[in-house]
Amino acid sequence: MSRMSEIQGVLIDARGRCAHYGGARDVVANRCATCGGFFACHRCHDELTDHPFGRMSTDAPDSVLCGACGHVMGYHVYSQASACPACDHLFNPGCSLHAPLYFEV
């Protein structure tokens, strides 16, 4: 099973983009601390689960997954990068506005 197949969400494409966020740079999935799953976005999580999204510690080494290549990284690496450190796929800079939804910041 590839890492990308771990991404859960509504109408997920091959790069982990969902019905809510489908831009070319929307390739990041975040891990829920409550259930441990990677989700394309908080709205997908809300639609598919029966619990609130559990925010991950910023020290967790495995809280973010690149949907372009499957690379897993922690918040500190992800938040400092404009692109995936493994495949150089650009990340959506607007995602930083959602950090408090996914991480204990």
From TrEMBL:
Q: Where does the CHY-type domain lie?
A: 11-89
Q: Name one GO molecular function term.
A: zinc ion binding
One Pfam match: zf-CHY
Coiled-coil stretches, from where to where? Answer: none
Q: Which UniProt keywords apply?
A: Metal-binding, Zinc, Zinc-finger
Top-rank taxon? Bacteria
What protein am I looking at?
A: CHY-type domain-containing protein
Instruction: Name the source organism.
Output: Corynebacterium efficiens (strain DSM 44549 / YS-314 / AJ 12310 / JCM 11189 / NBRC 100395)
| Lineage per the UniProt record | Bacteria, Bacillati, Actinomycetota, Actinomycetes, Mycobacteriales
